[in-house]
Write a structure and sequence with these properties.
Length: 432
C-alpha cells in the first residue's frame, strides 16, 4: 500500500488552479480530503485514473450512480446509438413511456411516473406534491438522512449535531418558515414516532424517509409503523430510494423490506451514471402533477431535461443488466462478502466495530454499541475511521468516508483488496 506514486508538481499546480477557479476546488460541497486532492482524467471498469496516470480502485462510483462501473461498453454504445437519433426532444418519447411501464412493473408504489434529472429534484417535488395534495405544510424527516440540496433537505444530515426534534440547518439562505415546518426525529425509534404523530394530529403533510438510512437498516417494525401512522393521520409517506432503488432489489428497499410508501424518489443507479431521476407513486397523488388537476391541489413540475432520451435509453440498458441479467444479485453477493470480511478483520484485530449496510453497500463504525441511528454514529470513533480513510485515499483507494459502493464489474478480489487495505491502514494509524 505504501508504493503508491506521489503526486506530480504539475498535478499539484492544476489542483491549485482548480481552487482558484471553482469554489472549494470541488464540483459540490463535499470536499476531498485536504492535501490529498487529485484530478481525474478517466474511469474504466472499477478504476479511475488521475492526470498523472495513477490508478485508484474505485468504491466511490460517482457517489453511487455507477452501478455498472465506469464506461460500461453496453452503456457507452447506448449513448452513441441514441446520440445519433437525438440528444434532446423535450416532447414525450415512446421509449420514456416504455420505461414508465417498467418502473410500474418493478416498484411496488409506482402507479404513475414523472421524470426529473437529479435525486434532489425528485425529493423536492415529492415533498411539494404531498403538501399540495394534503393542504398541509409540516413534514418529518429523520436525523442523519440525506435528501439532497434544496431548502427542504439541508437539515440534520449525517454528522450534524442535531438535538431532536429540532432541525439543525447546514446552509444559510434557506427560505424563511422551513425550520418551523420541519420536525427531525431519530431513525428506528418507533415509540417516539408514534408519540409525535399523536401529539400533532392531522398536521403533517409528509414523512420522508430513506428506508435504509445511509447504511443503517430499519429495525423490525419501524417502516411498518411509519406506514400505519401515516395511514392513520392522513400523511403522505415518501421513501427516498435515490440510493437504495435498483440496488437492494428490482423494487428497491420497499420490495426487500415489504413496506410500500405513497411516493418514491428514484435516481442514482437508475441509468448507470447518466443524469435521470423519477418520482413514482400512487395515482391519486401523482395525478395532481397534471396541469388539468384542480388548481388548489395542483403541484407544478417542469424541467428542460425531464425524460431526456439519452437518460431514458441508459436506464433501459441499466435495468436490463441489473434486473434481467442478475446484476443486482451480483452486487448483493459482493456486499455480503464485504460485510463478512470486515467483520472477520476487526474480530481478528480485537477491535470493537459494527458492520452496517445491505445489498451492495457496506460500512463500519468503531463502537461497541449497536448502530441503529445517527446519534450512535456520532458517538462512534469517527476520527479513527477518518484517519483510516485518509490513508486509503492517499494510497490508491477511492471511496466515500461514510460508505462503500460496489458495482457489477467489481469482484471478490477487489473487495478483498479493500478489506486488506483497511486492515493495513488501521495498523498504520494505531501504531503511531
Amino acid at each position: 500500500m505504501n508504493n503508491f506514486q506521489k503526486i506530480s508538481a504539475h498535478q499539484q499546480a492544476r489542483v491549485q488552479q482548480a481552487k482558484d477557479l471553482i469554489p472549494g476546488g470541488s464540483t459540490n460541497s463535499l470536499l476531498p480530503p485536504k492535501g490529498l486532492e487529485f484530478l481525474i482524467e478517466r474511469g474504466e471498469g472499477p478504476y479511475v485514473y488521475d492526470i498523472d496516470g495513477r490508478r485508484y480502485l474505485d468504491f466511490m462510483l460517482g457517489a453511487g450512480p455507477l452501478i455498472l462501473g465506469h464506461a460500461h461498453p453496453r452503456l457507452t454504445q447506448t449513448i452513441v446509438d441514441q446520440a445519433g437519433r437525438g440528444t434532446q426532444y423535450f416532447g414525450l418519447a415512446d421509449r420514456a413511456v416504455s420505461l414508465a411501464e417498467r418502473l410500474v412493473q418493478y416498484v411496488p408504489s409506482a402507479e404513475m411516473v414523472r421524470y426529473a434529472s437529479s435525486g434532489s429534484e425528485a425529493t423536492f417535488h415529492s415533498l411539494r406534491l404531498a403538501r399540495a395534495v394534503t393542504g398541509r405544510r409540516k413534514f418529518i424527516k429523520f436525523d442523519g438522512a440525506w435528501h439532497g440540496h434544496h431548502d427542504l433537505a439541508v437539515w440534520s444530515m449525517e454528522m450534524s449535531p442535531t438535538q431532536v426534534p429540532e432541525p439543525y440547518g447546514i446552509s444559510a439562505g434557506v427560505q424563511s418558515g422551513v425550520r418551523e415546518d420541519l420536525m427531525v426525529l431519530p431513525f428506528n425509534d418507533i415509540a417516539y414516532f408514534r408519540e409525535v404523530m399523536a401529539a400533532h394530529p392531522n398536521e403533517f403533510a409528509a414523512v420522508i424517509c430513506e428506508p435504509m438510512q445511509r447504511t443503517l437498516k430499519p429495525l423490525p417494525g419501524f417502516l411498518e409503523t411509519l406506514r400505519e401512522e401515516c395511514d392513520k393521520w392522513g400523511t403522505v409517506l415518501i421513501f427516498d430510494e435515490v440510493v437504495s432503488g435498483f440496488r437492494l432489489a428490482a423494487g428497491g428497499a420497499q420490495e426487500k423490506y415489504g413496506v410500500t410508501p405513497d411516493l418514491t424518489a428514484l435516481g442514482k443507479a437508475l441509468a448507470g451514471g447518466v443524469p435521470i431521476s423519477a418520482i413514482v407513486g400512487r395515482r391519486a397523488l401523482m395525478a395532481h402533477l397534471d396541469p388539468d388537476s384542480p388548481a388548489d391541489r395542483y403541484s407544478f413540475h417542469c424541467g428542460t431535461f425531464n425524460g431526456h432520451p439519452i437518460g431514458i435509453e441508459c436506464a433501459h440498458t441499466t435495468l436490463d443488466i441489473l434486473v434481467n441479467e442478475g446484476g443486482i444479485d451480483h452486487i448483493a453477493a459482493l456486499g455480503a462478502h464485504g460485510r463478512d470480511r470486515l467483520g472477520r478483520l476487526f474480530r481478528d484485530l480485537g477491535v470493537a466495530a459494527q458492520i452496517t449496510g445491505d445489498g451492495g453497500i457496506f460500512h463500519f463504525y468503531f463502537t461497541d454499541e449497536p448502530v441503529h441511528d445517527h446519534a450512535a454514529v456520532r458517538r462512534a470513533n469517527v476520527a479513527l475511521a477518518d484517519e483510516i480513510h485518509r490513508r486509503l485515499y492517499a494510497n490508491g483507494i477511492y471511496k466515500n468516508f461514510s460508505k462503500t459502493y460496489v458495482s457489477t464489474v467489481h469482484t471478490t478480489d477487489h473487495v478483498d483488496e479493500l478489506v486488506e487495505a483497511i486492515g493495513w491502514a488501521y495498523r498504520e494509524v494505531t501504531a503511531r
